[in-house]
Structures are given as structure tokens and as C-alpha cells.
Amino acid sequence: MKPDDVRIGVYVCHCGLNIAAVVDCAQVAEASAKLPDVVVSKDYRYMCSDPGQEMIKQDIEKHDLNRVVVAACSPRMHEPTFRKCVESGGINPFLFEMANIREMDSWCHSKVPEEATEKAKDLVAMAVAKARYLRPLDTMKVPVTPSSLVIGGGVAGIHAALDLADMGYKVYLVERSTTIGGKMAQLDKTFPTLDCSICILGPKMVEVDQHPNIELVTNAEVVKVDGYIGNFHVTVRKNPRYVDEELCNGCGECANVCPIEVPNTYEEALGPRKAIYVQFPQAIPMRFTIDKDACIECYKCVDACYEQGRNAIDLSMTPEEMEFDVGTITVATGYDMYDPSQVKEYGYGVYDNVVTALEIERMVNAAGPTFSHVVRPSDREEPKTVAFVTCVGSRDERAQIYCSGFCCMYTLKNAVLLKDHFPDMDIYIIFMDMRTNFKGYEEFYRRARKMGIKFIRGHPDEIFEDPETGNLILSLEDLSAGRPLDLEVEMVVLSQAVVPSKGTKELSQILTVSTDSSGFFLESHPKLKPVDAATDGIYFAGSAQGPKDIPYSVAQASAAASRSARVISHDEWEIEPIIAYVDPDKCRNTTVKCGVCATKCPYGAITVVEGQAAVVTPAKCHGCGTCVADCPSNAISQQHFTDAQIISQIHAALEKDPENKILGFLCNWCSYAGADLAGISRHQFPPNLRPIRVMCSGRVKREFVYEAFLKGAGMVMVSGCHFADCHYITGNYNAEKRIKPLFRILERAGINPKRFRLEWFSAAEGEYYARITREMVDFMGELGEDQIRLENEKAGPFLERMLNRGA
Amino acid sequence: MTSDEIPKEIVDSVRSRAQLCFGCGVCMGGCPVARVNEKFHPRRLIRDLVFGSFMEVLRGETIWLCAQCHICSETCPQGVGISEIIVDLRNLATGIGVSPPESYIGNLKQLAETGRTVPVSSRVERLRNRLGLDKLGPAAAEEIRALVRDTKFEELIVDKEGA
Amino acid sequence: MPEYALFLGCMIPLRLPYMESSARELLKRFDVELIEMQDAGCCPEPSLKSVDDETWTALAARNLSIAEGMGLDILTLCNGCFETLKTVDVELKGDGKLKERVNKRLAAVGREYNGKTDVKHLVEVLTGDIGLENLADAVEKPLEGLRVAAHYGCHLIRPNSLEVDDPLRPVLLDRLIEITGASSVPYFKRNLCCGAGVSGVDDYTGKALVRYKLGWVDKAKADCMAVVCPFCMLQYDLTQTLVRNESGERFNLPIFYYPEMLLLAMGAESKELAFDMHRTKMDQVLEKIQGGR
């Protein structure tokens, strides 16, 4: 029911020339003025600016507005800005709606300004239609747990934890391996200053250990996270060390007597460790762990520990779970190195003297397995000539398409270290480009050249091993000389690509955050929110979000800590009230056994007691809308995304020329964001699609699709996240179950099933969205308006019957 | 097509692939012909398609020097597909009247005449006999000639004088 | 063992018939039946692909349709024929519109190809249908001590879409050599093309490629080379006699067609195998092999 006296103000933003260069904003404002219930309609250069916002506030008073529509950028950009604006103008912030005429219009239809303008008018009309049905809502305030979780104890995790702990907050730092330190602990020196890596990291690690506010949980993994910003309930599984952390004092007598040696991954398998071990001498916590796969259970360590009077070893230990509450989570899970044996033509793993950068790093290190002697694995002799090869598995469409960011610099560093230790060594760096972006980096490159390191621009097509000498011949083109070159060296060091840390995919599902097309965690906005996840309360730091060097990782760590503190420094946090509520009069659980809603809810937010109406616990509801769509008696509604609000948008979108329009339902987290990205990236495609934003594809009822075709739509698309990536975990599964049968149903009704699309794509897939839109428009063109109209007319009675039937 | 102008879409479709090249020279490292003959330079060829004159490349002799071993396409990190581009260029070239190499013409004329690129000789028949191999059946040359009626092949090879 | 439609092409039956006879003999010993393809002609050769790729596709489809009509898959002995027939087959199977266009042309000669045939190279049949174990079991006189430089050629393994072996680091021919008791020696630039594709266009390049390759094979101290393609055979066996190494001398590197090697290992006498038809003398290597006997 719409309230009797709706008075809507429409504001069409130019966004400088971003919108105005394509869309005739004045025309749109003029057309919108004619819409029923619109009392004032203006266009202006920058609605989000001070004067722009002032104008809205003044109009609210002057014209007694009770709804505001701003046609501008994506709501994912400025909805919060304008909600605050109308609130300070005196209206409830949820009586505000945005029309996206930038990302979804001017930016992607820039070659067809007239059509873009028509689309803008439609988008405003849709927003106005929804606005009529908007209700004032009160934000929910939830208490905030003043503590934080940091996942990952590398340099980024360590710094994020220390910053937060120094601010006075309790921090849980959970690290998967037996010690913190991450990759930085494996390095010898860091570029460009050649600081000793463990020397600068070690003290920070000790600080973590000793900080009263940090609870360090190592050899542990996060297995479950429930809740929402301010109120995350975390379950961590502590894998057994088989050594009691309280009793062990790190004396090492156990390792002295252990008879088993296995390759030490910390030493890149170049050196051994015992079955009972610490990864490296500066390990934090300094507690031993037994590698059960290597342990032969001879109990020598148990005896040795007993003799020390500590009795710390317990081979019967089992995994333990711990649960705790935090207000925010920072993900600092770092990276892994790409397995270069996959680049078969370089012979890693086949040829003895082809090694990786981390391997050479360990060799050069004075405390490493070869005590700073760099030797060829084949004969343990010092090589007289060494070639470094960059971009192994990076910038390569057969492996990783991206650049791994810091390899140029660490290649330079390793070469400089080698040349420094072994001045007579002939050192070559084979490179395509030398990426030396930041402070001191280009100077470091110059230093390397001055030292006599030889730079050959090129990229080997293959490496061959001379079986007699173990030498390697690299075949490449010497680009600067412009001719082919076969370079023979005694050892080759590969700088291989960096890939997302193992377990990233699983963790992204546990946290319901997205990953990008390369598998790294996806930030909320690449420029303005580089450490925020799209999910509120979760932040990223370090290479987990994309390869980066140490200073960048540390900066992000502090940024993430600051973003966390921003939340947990408050006693309460406001949550959007976009939640479900049950109309007890309509709920059929009062008469028959139902409870469908509760089974669909991934958060257990709905309680169903026999004979009573279902009840939604507001704080637990995340607002996906799946229960709303699956309720067999239409008894559940979703605030701010009611059926009336959505259907009014369908009507407004298809009022004019519906046969040439595609009505698209896009989910806020993935497909709507992906569509935004298409516009941000300026992909161009025809302007036939009219988007309706829902929080989740799970919200889409079949009735919406029937209604759309009944109103004459050319095509309808329902879209959401890829499976396993749904922001609400199971929303898209439920959507698919509900929506997939529509293909057959529509066909029976006489509608070509190809006029209906079910698409799953991520926030990173702007190009995909542009492409499928083009495909859909082409298909509509092939069918032709007349055919579409015919099919729709024929299907009319069937669709009406389906709609009248109810759920 | 006999006119000098290649339609823009076709030039664009070749160029858009060549544009992917970021000049690493991996193709040069593996290319057998470039190894032994300075006249052939696949990286320069791709570069010239983007920067230089498309028509010069098309009418030039270098595109015929490629051995079509496909190492370049298999090792290219950007998926440029050099050996495929070269075959496309060759087809375009013959389409605007560029004559294919003499050696091609000889073999293909033989193909049109007998259905095979190598003639049957009495010497070979003796060798086959000695090895206990059956006489080789005919290769349906009539069928082949019927199939190539009104094709570029017929125009360029079969109808060509000499060779 | 399956039956195959034997696609002979042009080079083998009409220039290197000993390749045909040794392949036939080998396959006979493992009960692989080879049925003649009536009216099959040139695959057609790659040069046509460069001149008129539509006609090339149609002529290849004609050959494929002959095998399809026989209800058999194709076995080829030549890398060139393999690449042509398999590439066209994969293309036609994947592109319905192309298949339609090609079949319209084939209709003019009463033929049609529906994508029911597969194309295999001898190496695939040896390692797949017969299997390395069975081949190894048949070896009675292992070629111990023989150092063989394996040359796959290009079109057995590239482009990657042929899906026979790794396009840059293949292993099948090495394994085939090893089961004869010989060893496959690594040598630089193993992937290098024999140059047959360009030798007609530029004689200098063709010869230079043979020199370059054989130079590295010599450095690796191989006794001989093993090839699986008639073009590679011609380049290395025949053109070898027209070039000289760095010191101005003949290379004298014997070139085996792989089936010949395996037949020797299975106990065949060298005089049964027409080695005199090779242009580069095989005497030395045959002595080395038979020396132990």
C-alpha cells in the first residue's frame, strides 16, 4: 500500500561530464517532473558535493518532500552519502532511492547518447516507482565486541595485530603453521635497503608473543565464522602439536635425539629438519611440534623431555576447537609460490641446476642449509655463471595472466647479493621488463648495473641441460641486439609467479567474501576501499589481496587495523535494516506443518515452533530474501525490497517499448557489481537492459519473471554469484532450484526459452556482463519485435493463471 | 579479391591479434628459421603488422619463409598465434594476386593432375615391387579437379602457365 | 586389435616406400589390420593451406569421408598428413556451420563427412592400441648401447590441439626408443623443425636447419637419429648428404624410421629391411647393433 501523500524530489546528477557528456540530464529531469507524485525535479552538476546535498536538504523543507530519488552513480558508490544527506534534511534515510545512470548507463552506452538518455529516463522512473512504496526504517544498532581477529601471521598479519593491540584492543592472531613470520622469515635480505629480513621481523614477532593484548594461536585454522560486523563468532581448530605449549620451553633436547630427518619446507627442502621440530631458530612461539607423518613413535623425544623435567610431549593430543567473538576480522593469509615445474620447457624439477629464487635465498643466507655457500645441486660446486630468469608463469596466458609484482625487485636483490658475495661470478638477469616502481627501487636497479650484473632483455623459449656438465643453455632472443642467443650458464634461478595462498578459496567461503578472477581476495573498491572486503567488518592486508612487497603489505596492515578500529572503537554499530519479517496472519505454519523458510535460511535466523507463525531474529538475518521468495504462502516480506517495490520497478521499466527491453535482476554483491565494473571499465554495449537490484538472486520470485513477460518484456535475465561464492552462502543455489524450471514452464507458455537467461558471474566479470548483454540484444534482434510480441500475447493467459495461483 | 584493398575488418582481425604482442622475443628464441636465416624475423613481422605497413608485409617474401612448426604459438605468453597469423596472411596475399612460391606451384599442379603431389615413376614401382608392396591405386584426380572448380586453387595453380 | 584405414599420403608410397613396408610389417606383427583407402589422394599438403585454406579443408574432408564410409578410423604414417587430417577433423567436429559449408562442396562429388572418424598417427597406435608393454615384450634382441637422438618432428605434437603428447616436452618417442633397449639421448634444440616446410621455398634455410640440428646431435654423441615422418626422413637422410659439418666433413649420421629400429630389436635381420634404400649409409650403426650378436 503506498501512503496517500507521497511527495518525491528527483535529482539528476551530471557528475561533471561523466553522465552529462552522454545523457541529457536536463531532459531527464524534465521528463521525470511529469511522473506522478514527483513534486520537484532538477538536474545539477555534482549532486554529492556540498551545494548539491544542500540543495536536497533545502528542497525537502521547501517542498515538503518525503521521498528523494537521486539519479547519479551506482548506489554501491554513494547510497550511504545520500542517505546521510536526506537524514540530515529531516527524512528517514530509507526513503531514499538511487538510479544508476552512470556505471549502468552513460559509461557503457557512450556512443548512443539518445538511447542512453531514454534509458536514464526509464531508470529514474523505476527508482521513482520504488520510492513510492518505500517505508521509513530504523537502523538496527548492534553491540560491538571490542576485539579483532587477524588471520595469518606473516609481516602483514603481525603488523595489523600489533597496531590493533597497541590501540588497546584484544586481538586473536591465528596462524596456520607452527610459527608466525610467513615468507618474510625465509628471506635473507630485503630490497632495496638489503636489511636482514629476520633481523627486522624477529623483534616484531617477539613483540607479538609478549603483547598482553594479543592471543597468538598457531598451528590452527579458522573453520567457521558466523555473524556480522561487530559480532563475528569464530571457530578455530587447533591442530595438535603433540607438544604441550604450556610445558615446552623450546630447549630442543627432543630434536637432538630424534632419529628422523625430513626435508624442511622452511629451507625450501634444501635442508633437513627432524620429525620433532621448530621451523627456524627465531620461531614464535618457540615451541616444538611433531610431524606425525614423519614420526615413527620411537618415543626418544618423550624420554629426553622427561629427563629435562618438563614432560611436554603428548602423542595422544587431538585437534581442539576454540570459539570466540570478535568485532572485525583481518585476512592476511599471504601468498604461495607457483610451481615452476609446470613450465615444462624450463626443466625445473628435472634439471638439477635450475633452482627457484627462494631456494637461492636460503642458500645465500648465512644460517641457511649451505651456510651462505651458493652451490650447484648437481656437484655442490660454486657456479661461475648464473642466469636469473624472470616472469616464469607470470604475464602468461598459459599460466597466470597477471604480473606478480615484486619479482623484478627480488631478482635484482638476489643478483646483487650474489655479486656481492662472489664478485667474480658472471651474473645475468634475463628480463622482459624491469619493474622498479617505488622509493629507491630504480636506484637499486642502477646499482645492480654498476656492479657489473649483465642485463639481457628477452625471455627464454626453453632451457636445455647438458647432461655431461649439468650446465644449462638458455635459448632466447637478445632483444637489444636483435638476434637469437644461446646462453650457457652453470646455474639458473627462476623467479616464478606468486599465486593465492593455499586455502584461499575455502576461507573465502567461510567468510563469505569474494575472490577476483586470479583467485586473490577481492577488495570492495579498487581505489577507495583497497583493504575492505565487500562484506562489512572484514578487511584484507598484504598479498592475500594481490602480490605486494613488504612496505606495501605493512601499509595495508596498518590500514586494515585502522578500518577495524573504526568499528570496534564504537560500543554500537548501525546495521542496515534490510531484513525479513513474517506476517503472522499469513504464515501457514499456524495451520499446517511448514517451516520452509527456516530450512532455506543459511544463518538459522528463523525459528519455527509447531502451530505458531515463524519468527525472524532480526540481528541474525543478513537480508538475502531467499525465505521471502520460497515461502509458499507469501507470508514473508523483506524490508526495503518488498514485492510491491520490485514489481513497481518492473512496471516502470517496461511501460514503453517493452519488446526491446531486457529486464535484469542483479544481485548486489556479484552481478550488480559486475555490471558496475563493466561501466567502470567503459565496456560498450547496447542499452536495452533495465536492471533491478536485489540483495541476492535468492530474492527473485518466479512471479517477477511472469510479471515481466506479462508486461511485454523482450527478455528477462536473473543473475547472481557463482556457486559457492554467494554472499549469503546458499542464496544462489535456492535461486537456481526455484528459477531453473522456468525455462520449461515458459516454453510451455509459448515463450522461446532462449528469451530467459539465468547467469552466474562475479563482481570481477565486467567484460562477461558486457558480452552477454550484447548476445542477448543480438538474439532479440534476430527474433524481432513482432515475434516477441506474438509470443508474449500468446503466453498472456497462462502467465496470468500462474500469477493468480499465488506462490 | 583482386583489388589492392583488403577490407578493414580483415586487417583489423589480424592486427587485433598482433596487438597482443608485448615484444618478449620468445618466438624468436624458438624459431628454427630465424636461427639460421636473418631474413626471417617473426617478432619484427608481428610488429610491422601493427606499426608498419600491413601491405608491405603481405606482399613481402618473409611470410613464405615460415616453416609452420608452431613453436612460436606454443611458447608465446600472450597467445598471439604467430604461425596462424602467417597462414592467414598467406591466404590474404594469394587473394590479392601475390604468387605463391614456385615450389608450391609445382607440387600443387601435380596434385591437380594426379591427385598426389608426387608422380608415380617406374623406379618407384620397382622399389615397391621389391619390397612386396602392392601397386598404388589411383587417387581420384577427376574428383579432385571437380572439387577445386572455381576456387582460388584452380585460379592460381591449375590455370597457371608453366611450372 | 582394431582395424584402421591406412592413409598413405604421397611421400611415403612414392618416394620412401621402405617406410611403408617397415610400418606394415611392424603392425602386422601386432595384428593391426590395415585396410586400403580407395580413391584417397594427397591429404592435401600444407602448402595448399597457405594458398587456399577453404579448398584445403574440403579436400581433407574428402579423405576423411572415405574413411568414414569404411566405418574406420584413419592411421597415418606421416606427421604432415596427421596434422592436416586431424586439424580439419577437429575443426569440422567443432564448427557445425563450417561442416555444412564443406559438405555442400563435397556434395558436388557425391561425398559427405559427418564427423564419425578419428585420426591417429602411428606413434599413437603403437603407444596406445598396442601399448609399450606389449611392444617391450616382443623385443628379443635389445639394441643395447645404442644412443639414439629422438626427433619427433613438429606436426606430431604441435599445435597442442592435436593432443598426442606435450607440445614442447614430449615423451612418447623417447619411451618407444627405450623399450627397444636403446637410450634416447638429450640434445639441444630437440624441438627444432627439420625444415622440410621451408626447404622448397628457400634451399639455403632448409640446408642450414639440417646442419644446425645435426651439429647438436653430433655434440650429444648420438649414434643415430629416429624419425616418424617422411619429410623429416628426407631432410635428415637425403639433405644430410648435401651439407657439411663445421669441419667441412660429412655428418654420417644414420637415420632410422622408428619401425625399422623396433623390428631390428624384435629380431629382424637388417637385410630384410631395405636399409640400402636409405641415402645416408647405415652400415656403421647396423654393425654396432649386430656387433654383439
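qc> Chain A has a mean pLDDT of 95.
qc> done
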